[in-house]
Structure formats: structure tokens, C-alpha cells
Structure prediction request, 564 residues.
Amino acid sequence: MKYKQELAEVLYEVLGHEIQVKELEMLIEKPKNPLHGDLAFPCFALAKVKRKSPNLIAQELSGSIQSSTFEKVEVVGAYLNIFLNKKLVSEDTVAAIIELKENYGALDFGNNRNVTIDLSSPNIAKPFSMGHLRSTVIGNSLAFIVEKCGYKPIRINHIGDWGTQFGKLITAYKLWGEEERVKQNPIKELLTLYVKFHDEAENDPELVEQGRSWFKRLEDGNEEALALWQWFRDESLKEFSRIYELMNVQFDSFAGEAFYNDKMDRVVELLEENQLLVESDQAQVVELTDEGLPPCLIKKSDGATLYATRDLAAALYRKENYDFDLSLYVVGNEQSLHFKQLISVLGKLGYSWAKNMIHIPFGMMLKEGKKMSTRKGKVVLLEEVLSESISMARLNIEEKNPNLANKDAVAKQVGVGAVMFHDLKNFRMNDIEFSLEEMLRFEGETGPYVQYTYARACSILRKANWKIEDTVQTSSLSWEKEWKVVSLLAEFTIAIKRAYEQFDPSQIAKYIVDLAQAFNKYYGEVKILEAGDEQQARLALVYSVTVVLKEGLRLLGIEAPEEM
Ligand code: ARG
Prediction:
């Protein structure tokens, strides 16, 4: 990024201040083939201004680019291909990493402003699904990414702990539930009760009515209903926190749907004041026909509030309490319509900040090409997946490195990291196929591969007994063989910026896989520990690789063991 900017500044001068630096910087590309240089500047856009052929412009410009950073300039057609001064750039990059350490690559455009991130948000009394895993992992990584850009992330777990389903659950529990059984295996037992309710209710309208009336009582603050609800909630959160602990995910707030119970009247009043509420089929709705959307349901005929009502209250609450600059919702693609409606209704209320609310959708986790569904029993339980992944990692360690200290801790880092990385390596909108074997592979684009590369680099530094104080500023190293690794290190900020702009952690995942591959290739070709004047420079490069791999993994929420 730095060199792109530097080139833009040089071009700005050369072109006689005709085109702004920012504009020039946007035109600069990275050649696909490294043999064509490190940066490329296409002259098509200039041809219009200068009324000359792009090739002629490129030729004229090529002679006037003079700077120690740019070693060589070649003209190919309409392009200026620019080669960076390897020695200068390499020594510069390594020195920057050694100075900044884990802060290397950071950006500051966030200016310490708040970004709320609605993530994970599972529903109580139900198993933690793969969809919630995706939201957790993607949201957690986005929190680290926005933080790296200078924002203050606020992670909010909008727990699904309110709604008509709890009326049904209470009914089912009162009819068929046993306290002891629920205590022993809360989520499984509650799910069974819920499924039974649905089966029975199919031919029993009376049951449906009971469910509705229990929810009404719950909303009206009936003690018995509230106590049962509280119990279901507590038990569910206990299970969820075990998963969060495994994945090392923390939240700033667990204000779920129920939290907004006493904040919804205000939403209804606001909508009324603005004459937005209309009656439709005895329910209260906001019409969104002008925006090409179906109406947003606010209140049912019996006065019960809805998911959307609670989300409206939550949005207002978040704006007032966190004064967010951006408000992100990491929620599956199937809720796109809901978020469109939410944002439209807030827009109609006149809140200009509604446009800073962004739904960040993601695709599904598939098993053998099919959607996993709770009802059909096709669900894969996340906790089982994580523990299986950890034991597979443990076996692997036993096989490859039986003398490793703290095997359990490392197995956890690798096993959990594998699951998380598998989720983050593809663009989030893609559906992903669930496969433990694939996740845990030590080669290819996997978490363990990156972690293993990191551990390997750490071991080189240990063997050499390298210390940061040993760093020398210059050496006789030409940095030819190191160039691929260095140029990737220099691009860390670009990957971070791209991940931010597209709210896409896979930009970071792909970047660290590339870096790991380039480093392993280098490791195979060069005797890093060979004595000589160049050794210290090579070791400083190895150190730089460890810093960036570890920081890249951290941005994905994944730990990096130093030995594995
Ligand atoms: N609990 C919801 C579900 O599992 C997700 C909630 C997402 N967040 C929100 N603010 N609506 O479908």
C-alpha cells in the first residue's frame, strides 16, 4: 500500500499535478504475473486527457520515473510495469515489522468510533446450529478486523430468548416434561418437548391455543411462566458458554430479544406518531410497498410483539447506547428480507443512521450437499464436532510429535482452529460442505497448515537462538530468493483493508495461506541457518513471517501454538 502510494505521488509530479494522487493510486494494479513487475500503471485513462495513444504516454512516462524505490520501469502496450527495489523494500518491510510487531499492518481510519456487531445469536432451548457457528466465527473475525482498522468493536449476542415458541414450550413442559430429565440434558430434552408439541398440535387446535395463551401470560409477566422461561434460558446459556469458551469468543453484551420487552411500547408509539402503523388482517403493520417490500409485522391481533419489533427496539437502543458508526448484523442469508424491512422502517422514521446498518449474510453449511436441518434430525451438533476435531488433532500430535509439551492445549488450538478456518477460508456467501477430514489436513488451505508453518518458523528462530536485539539493518543479502515472501509481507495492510471493505475474513485467510506457501517454498530452497553475513537478515525475515502469520490467525480468531 505504501509503495502504491509512493508511486502515485511520483506520477502526480511527473504528470504535472494533472490528476489527483488518490485517483492515480486507484488506477495502480498488481500484475498477475510477477515477471511483469510488482506494480502496473495502465495509461488508458490518461489517453483521453492527453489525446495521445496509451502506449505513447507509457513510453513518455517511463523515462521520468526516478526514485530509489522503483528500480526498473518497463513499457508493455498501454502499461507501465514497475519493479520495486528489492533490497530497499525488503529491508524496509522487515524493519517495520520488527518495530511494530503485532501492530504491523494496522490502519487508523476507524478513529476509535464504535462498530456494533450482532453475532452468534442462537435461540435458547435449541441446539447451537451450524448457522450460528458461521455467524459466531465470521462475526468474531470481523470484530478483530474492524479493530485492526481503528474502530472499537462491540460484540452483541442477540440471544433468541423471546417469542411465541416459548408459549409452546411451556405448554409442552407442563404436559409432558420432567424436571430431572431436563436438568440432566437440557437442550436435548427441551428440543424433544418442542418437537412433540408440533407433532401433537397438528391435529389438536386446543394445544395451539394453549401455547398462545402461555406466551400471552409470559408477556404479561405471569410468575410461573417467567420462572420456567428463566430456567430454560439459564440452562441454555450454560451450554452455549461451553462452546464460546472452546472457541475463545467473548461478548460485550448478551442483551437478547427478551431484553427489549420493556422497550417495545416506545417503538409502537413512534410508529404511531409518524402515522406508519396500519391495520391489516387485525394485525398492526408498516406498509413498505413503495420500497418494493412486503409489510413489516409489528403487532399481532392478540397484542403479541414480533421478532421485527424487538429488532427495531434493539436498533434504537444500540444507537442511543453505543452511538455506533456502523452496525453490523452477521446473520444467514435467509434473513435478508427481514433486515431490508428493518432498515426501511427505520428510514421511514427519519433516522439517517439506518443506512449505516449493514446485514452481512452468509451461505449454508451443507452435509453431503444438503442443508442440515434440526427437525429432520440431520443436524450435526457443534459441540460434538469441536470435540471430535480436538481428539483428531490430539491423535495427530501423538503420531507426529509424541514428546510435545502440553499436548491437550495444542490439540484444542489446532482442532478448534481447523473448524474455524474451514469456515473462514471461502467467501462467506458460498455454501460450504462440512468435512472434518478436510478441515484437519496438514496440507492445502487449512488452519493446521498455517499453524504448522508458524510453528516451523518459530522452531527455526529457537534453533538459531535468535533475539530481536540481534537484528542488523543491512547485510549483503540481495533479497532475490526472499522476494515473494517479502512482497506478501508488504501487502498485509492491503489484505486487511480488503477484508474490511468487503466484510470478508476470507481475504485474510487466503492471504495467510499464500504467505505460508511462499514461506514453505523458501524454506525448501534456502538454507536459512547457513552461517554467514546473510544469516541475520534471513532470520529477521523468518521472525517477520511469524509476526504476520500469528497476527493473521488472530484476526480470524485462531490461536497459533509455537510448537505442534
Ligand atoms: N436468533 C436468530 C436466529 O437464530 C438470529 C438473530 C440475529 N440477530 C438479530 N438482531 N435479528 O435466527
Summary: The chain has a mean pLDDT of 93. The pocket of arginine is lined by residues 118, 121, 123, 158, 160, 311, 314, 329, 331 (CB under 6 Å). The longest helix spans residues 223-247.
